[in-house]
Design brief:
2 domains; about 80 residues
């Protein structure tokens, strides 16, 4: 029963956050439908746009394994290089 109540409260909070635009569009944690792939596409598009304008791009990555639980690091790196 407690898990059901927690789930209902979490869905209501998520709905209110989306309704009142409390998270930035570029914030991916907690946004329904904002997957890791969507964030990688946004990152790629942002970098390519900067390069087209001859700008330098710097990226800071923090705790990739914490963001993607159970990721096999060498497979993740291989796939990212391939893409």
């Amino acid at each position: 029963m407690a898990k059901l109540l927690t789930s209902i409260v979490a869905k209501e909070i998520s709905h209110l956050v989306e309704l009142h635009l409390l998270l930035l569009a570029t914030h991916f944690g907690g946004h329904p439908g904002h997957s890791t792939m969507v964030s990688l596409h946004l990152l790629t598009d942002t970098i390519k746009a900067a390069w087209r304008h001859k700008q330098v791009v710097s990226v800071l990555y923090l705790d990739v394994e914490g963001e993607i639980p159970n990721a096999v690091t060498h497979c993740l790196l291989h796939n990212m290089r391939r893409w």
